[in-house]
């Protein structure tokens, strides 16, 4: 079930067609996944979202592509976005995630879910050692 | 502010002392961060939690230590656990996270926050291509 | 799938019948959506919930009816309630939400999802200018 | 820091005064906690909220008062509401929660945080045995 | 839909078989619910999770079994884990939860959802009376 | 406390200076709120975020400026982002939100928090009438 359905001739809109063409050439496949079909009713939203995905996830950078997808899965699980969990788990596998790595990823996500709730339940105060501004103040004090 | 305060002589309980000693020797430091002080009122909870952290985060495995901390940060942000965001950001830096990597990590977390909410708002249906059980069914059908 | 199923003759309970009658006359339709059928097993919970919906959403007030539904969608997306996203998107359309407004609503929700996670990740401190109690203190100081 | 500050003479509004008087007499104390002071700027919201708290939490019922507070803590932790975690932990202690029970409550909340995220990460399908409507269908089929 | 499918001969792995045997004998039933089938691809994760569930939920303790399940439902609803809501609602019913208790549980969860969001919206400051460390400071001051 | 501190001469980076200059001229004020100071360590992230805020929130459009801020508040409360709740409540007031409107906004957010959790707890199935794709199917069937 969905709150919106894509119209039949999405690519009759030239802005939509341009994004879809870019998705196909960037990913070297004809497959356009539902997320982009569903966003196409608002071409500006589609453009902005694809541009950001291409820049943040697609560009070579200091974090390798598989790690990026595992981070994306982690956020999607914690935010409880079913579509996103499915799509990024598939993407991580396509980028080489092994079953062993997947099991470890889940172990980290599960453990974080547990310790997050314990820290929240106890309202544990942040240690000074973890506060970046305290570090600055300490350094300043030591420097004087 | 906190819902609980650690008692003064936590380590007079031998189970607490054993965990704290293990934290100190595993991490090669005398510093025990607040999370463990706050959990110490229930020694069984303290033991189970530390054992799991040591096994999931501490052991050499198929995901490198820095990546583990970045995944932990991602979950903690999405779960909105202030203590956890602070402690794991500090841990990631201690394990070598650069400012460039930190900026990229935030870009991924922010983008995931955005696309997660868009997918949820539109209730985008999961593509068959992303469904692991569909893959099994397809393979079975092709095999027949 | 559901954790509960409505019994067959819900309206044989006079308290349930009274609420359903009020829903039908208030909304000028015979259609009772599932939310109310599912709550009917506990008549007190049904009454309290309907009374609050009628008062908060149904009454003429300083926020117009369409804006109310768009705010409701926003909360439902952020809380990730699938039923609620569906029912309030339908309600917003019934109250005149255009496709253009819907696209803009999603853009705001998506952007808020992104900046929310960035502010949480960085633990950005609240500016004094945004603190209502600071305003009071400043005014008091200036007045003296 | 707060987004709103209570005015000085809150009880000059007779609707506010009536609610505060009822809080004082119901709880047999002069202490009005901040939640009610902060809601008082909108008397209708204050009245509806206090009426619901009194009915759901205050009335004798099939769930005992301490259990109610522990359930309230659990929801507040999972929703990450700092004020609520503090106030209901204090309330649970006032109603007799022991340190042993508190430790166990945290263990359940932490475990649920973990298994919740694992079930979400794997998108585990709900067993038919847990579906209330399936039970109805099975019963109907067996009856025929 | 799921991100993972259990392999056909899960119990050919002796570690998986040992956990499944323990589930069957602990629960006195042959029924293994999906959660365990889905975790079995990573035997270490399966073992750790089952061990914790058995210790936290299964052992006799200061919180009775039905209350534990109701707390688990509350966390699962607030975390929005559909599988968990289904499985723990079924478990609570199996442990004797009446329709009356279920209605009251929902009333508490719904009310907490409301007051949680109000406290967050207003950023209500925590009363000193609810701060455990303040209590310690007050006691120390009075003692001197 | 914060996980990061802005460096002293942020505007010595020309990309940062360009964004800050644009913020000042767009908003006609010298005040740069913390969010932008904290994002400045990663100029690309700063640029992308400001560009999106300017386009989604700043441009004249089919949703009026005050309604946009109220929607932003609603998302920020549900996502529990303290910084965001503070900054957008201040922005809504600057755009003319009255106390009456603020009270009603809170009433909607609180009610949505409650009904969201009830719908999730009961796993209420979405009515066909709320499913956009069902509408399409119905229309197609009627057309034939």
TrEMBL record, chains A, B, C, D, E, F:
Q: Does the keyword Oxidoreductase apply?
A: yes
**Family matches, as Pfam families:** CMD
Which InterPro entries does the entry mention? Answer: AhpD-like, AhpD_core, CMD-like
Q: Which residues are in the Carboxymuconolactone decarboxylase-like domain?
A: 46-124
- What are the alphabetically sorted keywords of the record? Oxidoreductase, Peroxidase
Report the GO molecular function annotations.
peroxiredoxin activity
Oxidoreductase as a keyword of this entry, yes or no, is: yes
The cross-references to PANTHER family, in alphabetical order and at most eight, read: CARBOXYMUCONOLACTONE DECARBOXYLASE-LIKE DOMAIN-CONTAINING PROTEIN, SI:CH211-175M2.5
User: Could you identify this protein by its name?
Assistant: AhpD family alkylhydroperoxidase
């Amino acid at each position: 079930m969905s709150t919106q359905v894509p119209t039949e001739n999405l690519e009759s809109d030239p802005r939509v067609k341009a994004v879809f063409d870019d998705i196909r050439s960037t990913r070297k496949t004809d497959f356009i996944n539902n997320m982009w079909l569903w966003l196409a009713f608002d071409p500006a939203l589609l453009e902005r979202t694809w541009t950001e995905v291409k820049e943040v996830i697609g560009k070579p950078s200091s974090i390798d592509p598989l790690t990026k997808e595992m981070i994306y899965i982690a956020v999607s699980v914690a935010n409880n976005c079913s579509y996103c969990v499915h799509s990024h788990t598939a993407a991580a596998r396509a980028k080489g995630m092994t079953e062993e790595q997947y099991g470890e990823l889940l172990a980290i996500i599960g453990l974080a879910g547990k310790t997050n709730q314990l820290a929240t339940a106890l309202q544990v105060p942040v240690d000074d050692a973890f506060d970046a501004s305290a570090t600055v103040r300490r350094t300043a004090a030591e420097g004087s």
